Amino acid sequence: MSKKSTAARAVYVVDGSRTPFLKALGKPGDFRASDLAVGAGRPLLLRQPFGPEQLDEVILGCIAPGVDEANIARIVALRLGCGDKVPAWTVQRNCASGMQAVDSAALDISTGRANLVLAGGTEAMSHHPILLNQRMVAWLADWNRAKSFTARGRQLAALRPHHFQLIIALMRGLTDPLVGLSMGQTAEKLAWRFNIDRESMDRFALRSHQRLADAQDNGRLDEIEPIYNQAGQLFESDDGLRREGTLEKMAKLKPAFDRPVGRVTAGNSAQITDGAAMLLLASEEAVERHGLPVLGKVIDSHWSALDPSQMGLGPVHAMGQLLKRQKMQGEEIDYWEINEAFATQVLACQAAWQDKDYMQQEVGLDALPSPIPDDRLNVDGGAVGIGHPVGASGARLILHLLKTLQQNNAKRGIASLCIGGGQGGAMLLEAQS
């Protein structure tokens, strides 16, 4: 949305749904990114009193759609039956792509350019490609130019082992090219900066799984729509949950990014996952015309930037400036969702939030905000347990936060993410009273 809080028109979130988040198992999963978005969007649209062709646009966040999914939003829109005349476009803001899609939809509604928008995010991380290195690409170009038997023989003789060194696109994409650090290494920097020990990280991670288990067992994840693969296999819940996890088991895991002395492990990091989340946004005019129920409202949003090597603190900057502009105190927020890229990253955000020097010098707040209560933060678990399909997580946070407000008869919440490359995004939401 606009950084001004005085939008011309109210923006309502009517409804939303998501797929189960499915853990990547080392090979391409059963669903492409477009399949997942359709899996989340189709049941959402089927329960509306209007046809999909009445949407004004479809906006979808995705970091790495497949080669057959260029402008994936348009592909998804057509597969959902929106017809030829509904425009669709794709956004990319790294981990916050799904939130950016919702923000873009809200802006179009608030300014009167749209009345009904389907927005969300999708990612099939298990389908991110393995690439040839540049030496091999150059060799193939020379091979194609070699026409004679002799020329091709010379080309074959030039092949060396380094030509066959493959590039894992996912790992390359999760490494910042300017500071030369992987996202996990930036999390290690935050652990050292705020003196967050390994046990604290593991406890946080274990709590994420425990809260997710409790949410599953008590029916608080009704936003999930089951999906079937081509073989007819049913997927109906997030499958990265570790119900049998213990601190003792987590303590045995080795550092993943800073061996041998690091603290960040696979167990206290977000899981590599496939999934999608979609939301239907509407103007007041559309709500009244179609008699739509309302889940909540988008009140405001803020995007911030900071040193890429400290990217995990992005939520602190975005949330702090959002509250400042709204002239609100932290205690006026009933529930918080901060994406769990890493356990230490969320813990560092909580620590920075209560660090007077950091908030004054880095964020620009004169007064220290009230603490973010543990019992109001990620109450049903987060990406450590659920997974983090990077293009979809921002939309999932928004959807689940609105559900949490509704289930607890609460009023306001903030959803936020850190963003690779050194950014933070936050959105202020309000439940329908």
What does this structure look like?
By secondary structure, the protein is an alpha+beta fold. Among the domains are: 131-168, no CATH class; 298-431, Peroxisomal Thiolase, Chain A, domain 1, CATH 3.40.47.10. The protein is built from 15 helices and 14 strands. The chain has helices at residues 33-46, 72-79, 97-110, 134-145, 149-158, 169-173, 183-193, 198-217, 247-251, 284-290, 314-326, 343-353, 356-363, 383-386, 393-407, and strands spanning 11-18, 22-23, 57-61, 88-91, 116-124, 130-131, 167-168, 227-228, 234-235, 273-282, 296-305, 335-338, 412-419, 423-431. Strands 1, 2, 3, 4, 5, 10, 11, 12, 13 and 14 form a 10-stranded mixed β-sheet that branches.
How helical, in percent, are the residues?
Answer: 25-40%
* Assembly category: single chain
Number of helices: 15
Approximate strand percentage: 15-25%
Q: Give the CATH superfamily of the domain at 298-431.
A: Thiolase/Chalcone synthase
Nearest-integer average pLDDT: 95
Which residue ranges are poorly predicted, with pLDDT under 50 across at least 5 consecutive positions? 1-7
Q: At the first level of CATH, what is the class of the domain at 298-431? A: Alpha Beta
Task: Report the biggest beta sheet as strand number plus sense, adding barrel if it closes.
Answer: 10 strands, mixed
Radius of gyration, whole Å = 22 Å
Helix and strand pattern: EEHEHEHEEHHEHHHEEHEHEHEHHHHEE
According to DSSP, the number of beta strands is 14
Give the name of the CATH architecture of the domain at 298-431: 3-Layer(aba) Sandwich
Distance between the termini: 22 Å
What is the CATH fold-level name of the domain at 298-431? Peroxisomal Thiolase, Chain A, domain 1
Q: Structural class, from secondary structure content? A: alpha+beta
Shape: globular
